[in-house]
């Protein structure tokens, strides 16, 4: 297992996270920039599970409109967000379902999903390594985990820590890719992009068959 030295972080003074996360601008960035970027990295799948959908059901919509998803289960740990996301995606009909669930205990069987998708949820999950392992568990061999994430360089920036709460143990791109590989999720060179000087990483990892 790859061990990470715990970073010391400055305290958080104000929780202004929701100002950005729930904004229409953030939603448009996800829909128009991050979703298409993951599509260019090869994100595809009919049976999809989204982790950390937030209040607008962003990933569920991207999955249906960009990745060819026909059946999306979108989960979030906050019940209020799930309720809001359900309303926000009503136009997608029965292609999208929502459930309150924790990324470290996903409510689906082993090897039952083609695509696990997440926009900026893993850096909010205290045990992000458990969420990676859980994503690998639910993916069928050949299935994909598609992520867009802030790295430690972004999350641990003093100005961001001052206005937004995140758990202490964050990952850089190398740590994320190493943990994916440890769980049987391989990222090819062409399935990985970093942005903003390594502050944002986008990746599409493939679930290897057991024993390969
Ligand atoms: C930064 S928001 C991203 C929301 C949306 N995906 C977006 O990109 O706009 C992170 C989301 O992850 C959810 N989340 C945090 N920890 C979680 C966990 N352990 N399991 C599932 N969802 C979680 C939060 O409730 C929140 O909705």
UniProtKB/TrEMBL annotation:
Species this chain originates from: Goekera deserti
Keyword Transferase (UniProt): yes
Any single GO BP term: methylation
Keyword Transferase: yes
Domain Methyltransferase type: from-to ranges: 49-146
Alphabetized Pfam families for the sequence: Methyltransf_11 (PF08241)
MF (Gene Ontology): S-adenosylmethionine-dependent methyltransferase activity
UniProt KW keywords: Methyltransferase, Transferase
Listed name of the protein: Class I SAM-dependent methyltransferase
């Amino acid at each position: 297992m790859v061990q990470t030295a715990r970073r010391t972080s400055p305290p958080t003074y104000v929780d202004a996270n929701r100002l950005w996360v729930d904004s229409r601008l953030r939603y448009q960035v996800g829909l128009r920039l991050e979703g298409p970027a993951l599509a260019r990295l090869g994100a595809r799948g009919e049976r999809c599970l989204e982790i950390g959908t937030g209040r607008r059901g962003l990933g569920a919509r991207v999955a249906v409109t960009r990745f060819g998803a026909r059946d999306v289960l979108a989960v979030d740990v906050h019940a209020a967000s799930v309720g809001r996301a359900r309303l926000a995606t009503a136009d997608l009909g029965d292609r999208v379902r929502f459930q309150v669930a924790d990324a470290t205990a996903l409510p689906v069987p082993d090897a039952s999903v083609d695509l696990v998708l997440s926009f900026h949820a893993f850096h909010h999950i205290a045990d992000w390594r458990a969420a990676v392992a859980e994503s690998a568990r639910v993916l069928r061999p050949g299935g994909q985990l598609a992520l867009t994430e802030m790295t430690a360089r972004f999350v641990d920036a003093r100005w961001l820590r001052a206005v937004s709460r995140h758990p202490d143990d964050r990952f850089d791109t190398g740590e994320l890719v190493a943990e994916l590989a440890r769980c049987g999720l391989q990222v090819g060179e062409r399935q990985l992009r970093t942005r903003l000087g390594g502050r944002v990483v986008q990746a599409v990892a493939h679930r290897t068959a057991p024993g390969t």
